Amino acid sequence: MSVVEKIAANIGKKTRNILDFDDDTEEVVIYGAINLIQTSVSFLLIMAIGLIFDVLYESLLFTISISILKKYSGGAHASSSGRCLFIGNAISVSFSLVISKILCKRNIWEIMVIGILCIVITLFIIIKKAPVDSENKPITSDKMRKRLKRNSIITIIICSIVMVIALLIFIASSNIVYIKTFECICFGILWQSLTLVKPTIKFLHKIDSLLPF
What we know:
The chain is mainly α. The protein has one domain.
């Protein structure tokens, strides 16, 4: 049992003693506590590393874009919370550095082409693959599967609208923040969609297996 799981189990036990509920409710509390702790620690680490590398805005927006789509699409999972934090932060900061130092300096036409390609690829993968479940949380209901796919597609459409708005504001203001916004959302949802396909899943599992913790 990981440190996060031990803390969550302790929270579940203490909450049960105070509120006097059953075993099933305790499991729900523990599961919610695990998610809350992992999310909080992940964002704190991303903020710390983002500040160190001067890509705080990019890393946060990139991670948020991934998280929103992953909620519905599923995708590759690490074998432990520690490995999940390490891999997630490494990917987030790597993409953020590429966006901040290289991609946001391209001309507007190249950026538009990149954005269109990312959206097309993302939509294609989501329509073909989403949602991808895990052994711990299998999707057994066809109705649930259809709902998650629909919500994944809606999420991409909303992200595309936000990207277009950001691009239009950049054209009007020349503020580089809006190009970074466009690209962080663009590559965030693209990366999340790639975690649904076998080559990326195998690659991430390989990285996972090589980590010593």
